[in-house]
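RECORD TYPE: inverse folding
INPUT: structure tokens
STRUCTURE:
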């Protein structure tokens, strides 16, 4: 079994050495979320659980396909070390012994027993450019869909590990669009995860073509994964650029694999963990235990139960931005919100229906509502993101009229650490930040107002109905909880 693991990583090493330089391209637009029933769903760049709460993955990869006798011990060990998620390697039979349906069900049961979200991935297609290998993974999931159905609250489907080894975003997208459609047509409604091209290390495939893959999903419930080793995660600027570019399409991204070093260079694991914490992006370390002798530095634990950690494992688990300090258990296991909650007035994506007047504004001005409820985020996060109607969202940007203002009611220990962000992929400013012109108190909370003129100046145009795609409330420091967002018209 050790030789099998060594071989697959050795192939990855050989291919990675031949990778060409990445080409820059335009970012792709975001699209509105279409929540899957009774399970995880996409809301802007956030992953929401079945209770409508934000879920940020913190966890490890477990190599079930090669070490099946240690899977239960490994899952419990990951949970004992603070993980809220495990990504589990299974096999469809093309390269390794096929993981049976009963085995698959046992993995899911063990994860649920230990309050862990379970990501299942077929590893046989790793590095392949052949659609036949991707289709084999798809057929495996369709064959075993009874394990997935009914477990949408607990299981995320990572179709195929690192399918498409070449750095070719178009072909990667075409294959995955077909795969996503086949999975949905088979009646599988779980959130889908897709690894980027280039053995998981070519994130520009997400930036350039991720929207087309997302749009191919009838549930609009696909997220993307970057595997950050020496190419995608070799230094701080590369890490930040790749995460920002992926999030720029308006869909969640996860760091599905990373380590402290890799075959052809160092990995900036400190920046990966700190920037993921800053941006509310999930991360999953590779891998719990069982890497071959030449890659043993990637082992997180010295023993299957995780009572002794390696140097890499200690960084991942106990570091300042490590799992123990940043992991929050998914609320489907706790029955309460781990980071945010929505009131009965608000939709699961954080958008409220429009209304014409309310006392919510401290001045009593009539308004149109963008959000009503309760949603939280940490420093540099966005507790509320609202899509405009031109993209299928709830807010008509034609309501932004001269002399009006945006009004945000919130709590933050330092009330001036809040900003309004106007986002465009249609011709306006890509990420226009607007500062508040007035702060005050109302309804036991703080409020901030953002003027029409300041919005125009930051966005670069007053034609919001044509160019404004999404609106965010951003917090610069501390944790911010937002209770309402509206556009007000002075009496």
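DESIGNED SEQUENCE:
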């Amino acid at each position: 079994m050790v030789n099998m693991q060594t071989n697959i990583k050795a192939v990855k090493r050989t291919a990675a050495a031949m990778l060409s330089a990445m080409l820059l391209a335009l970012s792709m637009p975001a699209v509105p979320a279409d929540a899957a029933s009774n399970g995880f769903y996409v809301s802007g760049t956030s992953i929401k659980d079945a209770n409508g709460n934000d879920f940020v993955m913190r966890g490890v990869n477990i190599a079930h396909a090669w070490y099946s006798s240690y899977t239960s011990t490994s899952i419990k060990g990951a949970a004992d070390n603070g993980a809220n998620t495990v990504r589990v390697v299974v096999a469809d039979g093309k390269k390794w012994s096929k993981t049976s349906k009963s085995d698959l069900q046992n993995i899911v049961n063990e994860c649920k027993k230990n309050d862990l979200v379970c990501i299942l991935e077929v590893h046989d297609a790793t590095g392949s450019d052949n659609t036949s290998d991707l289709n084999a993974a798809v057929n495996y999931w369709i064959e075993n869909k009874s394990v997935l159905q009914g477990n949408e609250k607990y299981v995320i489907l990572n179709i195929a590990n690192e399918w498409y080894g070449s750095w070719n975003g178009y072909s990667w997208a075409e294959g995955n669009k077909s795969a996503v459609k086949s999975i949905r047509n088979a009646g599988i409604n779980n959130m889908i995860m897709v690894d980027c091209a280039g053995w998981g290390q070519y994130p520009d495939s997400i930036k350039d073509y991720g929207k087309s893959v997302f749009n191919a999903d009838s549930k609009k419930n696909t997220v993307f994964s970057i595997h950050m080793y020496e190419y995608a995660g070799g230094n701080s600027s590369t890490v930040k650029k790749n995460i920002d570019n992926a999030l720029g399409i308006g869909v969640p991204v996860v760091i599905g694999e990373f380590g402290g070093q890799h075959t052809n260079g160092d990995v900036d694991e400190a920046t990966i963990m700190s920037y993921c914490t800053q941006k509310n992006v999930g991360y999953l370390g590779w891998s719990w235990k069982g890497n071959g002798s030449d890659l043993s530095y990637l082992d997180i634990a010295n023993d299957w139960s995780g009572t002794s950690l390696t140097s890499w494992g200690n960084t991942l688990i106990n570091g300042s931005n490590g799992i123990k300090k940043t992991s929050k258990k998914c609320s489907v296991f706790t029955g309460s919100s781990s980071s945010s909650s929505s009131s009965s007035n608000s939709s699961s994506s954080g958008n409220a229906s429009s209304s014409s007047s309310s006392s919510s504004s401290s001045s009593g001005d009539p308004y149109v509502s963008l959000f009503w409820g309760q949603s939280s985020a940490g420093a540099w996060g966005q507790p509320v993101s609202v899509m405009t109607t031109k993209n299928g969202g709830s807010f008509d940007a034609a309501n932004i009229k001269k002399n009006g203002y945006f009004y945000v009611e919130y709590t933050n220990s330092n009330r001036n650490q809040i900003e309004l962000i106007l986002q465009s992929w249609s011709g306006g400013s890509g990420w226009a930040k607007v500062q508040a012109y007035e702060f005050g108190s109302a309804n036991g909370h703080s409020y901030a107002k953002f003027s029409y003129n300041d919005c125009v100046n930051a966005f670069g145009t007053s034609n919001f109905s044509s160019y404004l795609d999404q609106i965010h409330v951003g917090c610069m420091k501390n944790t911010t909880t937002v209770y309402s967002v509206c556009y007000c018209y002075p009496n």
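NOTES: Confidence is low (pLDDT under 50) at residues 1-37, 337-363.
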